[in-house]
UniProtKB/TrEMBL annotation:
Lineage: Bacteria, Bacillati, Bacillota, Bacilli, Bacillales
Binding residues for ATP: 7-20, 101, 163, 188-189
Subcellular location: Cytoplasm
Entry protein name: tRNA(Met) cytidine acetate ligase
Record-level Gene Ontology MF annotations: ATP binding; ligase activity, forming carbon-nitrogen bonds; tRNA binding
Any one of the GO CC terms: cytoplasm
Length: 404
């Protein structure tokens, strides 16, 4: 059997994700779609709207065959590390290709961009260093350096777009890990990353869907933008945990942690740099809500995404020392599979170079223990009935009629 890989968060799984999974299989000619999915915390430094098992079931109900978890250390990292971890796992799972959605819609500009930056790496790094010294954010420095090298040529990918940026890093990682794994891209359609919901448009952004719900929309009113299976599963989790998850719900625990640790201790957590620990601590003292808190901390130099990643690491206790020890994924944590996915894994099991983990109890290393810690803290913050859920939830299996 042949597999293609996708990197996802499904926060939540909507019609755009349904289109992506179907097109990935079509373009690659694969029998199986393998998704590497972030767990309870996401790349933009946010707790997931719904837990990882709910999001896994959404995916399996709508065209994905295997869902494996991207470890916390990569899932909450900057784009290059996020991509490196995900591509490493797709390669370990035996994927012949990987497919990502992009604003570009064509693969050739990404390959040209990779060649450009590899050829002019020293010049690129120098420009980044010089731009950061002026006080701008690191992402802005990266973009300035890239624009100066490509000189407005249309041969290269537009790396000002969020999905194009991730796509470039996927290709960069695949070039380092396994050049035989073919990169594919599909045109991102419908709403942009941050766009609000638009009546009559079936493909909305996950951000727009989440914002609409938190602003008072009922789940039934979001039905045009999500598969029926996603609506059903979201209704279930909404009833079980009295709502969905955002930083506002986590803020009391986050604020307690910040105030308890104090500025000096905050500096030991991953990505907390340049003295911002003092501002974080002072803002927590003065802010009753998360929105007020984040408005006080973000700046031209420290983007909201960068700050949220710091806060995620403070919340989970992920230190600079732990981050420096991360090399590459050490296991494949299986979250779920369909009948077709199980056939593929059984066929490939002797060729997979990493241990395939189906029980949290088998996660014995520091990377696995971090995943357990992060998930347990997430469950605590949402008021889950059992903090043992991380240990007691088996991989979700959606079989066909022959399994019944």
């Amino acid at each position: 059997m042949k597999a293609t890989g996708i990197v996802v968060e499904y926060n939540p799984f909507h019609n755009g994700h349904l289109h992506h999974a179907a097109k990935a299989k079509e373009l690659s000619g694969a029998d199986v779609v393998v998704a590497v999915m972030s767990g309870q915390f996401l790349q933009r430094g946010e707790p997931a709207f719904a837990d990882k098992w709910t999001r896994t079931e959404m995916a399996l109900s709508a065209g994905v065959d295997v869902v494996i978890e991207l470890p916390y250390a990569f899932a909450t990292a900057q784009a290059s590390e996020f991509a490196r971890g995900a591509i490493h796992l797709l390669d370990a799972a035996g994927c012949a290709s990987f497919c990502f959605g992009s604003e570009q819609g064509e693969i050739e500009p990404f390959l040209n961009s990779l060649e450009l930056l590899n050829t002019k790496r020293e010049q690129y790094d120098t420009i980044i260093h010089d731009r950061v010294q002026t006080g701008i954010s690191y992402p802005k420095a990266l973009n300035d350096a890239y624009l100066s090298l490509k000189n407005s040529s249309s041969r290269y990918a537009d790396l000002t777009k969020p999905n194009n940026i991730l796509g470039y890093h996927y290709i960069e990682a695949a070039h380092a890990v396994n050049r035989a794994m073919a990169p594919l891209t599909i045109q991102r359609i419908g709403a942009g990353y941050h766009d609000p919901l638009e009546p009559g448009v079936a493909i909305a952004s996950a951000t727009g869907i989440r914002n609409a719900f938190f602003e008072g929309e009922e789940l039934g009113e979001l039905a045009p933008y999500l598969p029926t299976s996603s609506i059903r599963l979201l209704e279930r989790v909404h009833a079980e945990q009295q709502g969905f998850v955002d930083w506002q719900r986590f803020y009391p625990m986050l604020r307690f942690t910040i105030l308890r640790e104090g500025p000096k201790a905050l500096a030991r957590f991953a990505e907390v740099t340049e003295g911002i620990e003092n501002l974080i601590h002072e803002s927590a003292k003065r802010s009753e809500t998360f929105d007020v808190f984040i408005a006080r901390v973000k700046s031209k130099r420290f983007t909201r995404t960068r700050i949220q990643r710091m806060l995620t690491h403070i919340f989970t206790g992920y230190t600079q020392q732990e981050a420096q020890a991360v090399k590459q994924p050490e296991y494949i944590r299986l979250l779920g599979m369909t009948h077709n996915g199980r056939r593929y894994l059984n066929e490939r099991k002797k060729a997979i170079p990493l241990p395939v983990i189906s029980r949290a109890a088998d996660l014995t290393g520091s990377m696995g223990q971090l995943d357990i810690r992060a998930s347990t803290l997430y469950l605590q913050a949402i008021g889950a009935d059992s903090l043992k859920k991380e240990y007691t939830t088996p991989p979700i299996y959606l079989g066909d009629s022959s399994d019944k």
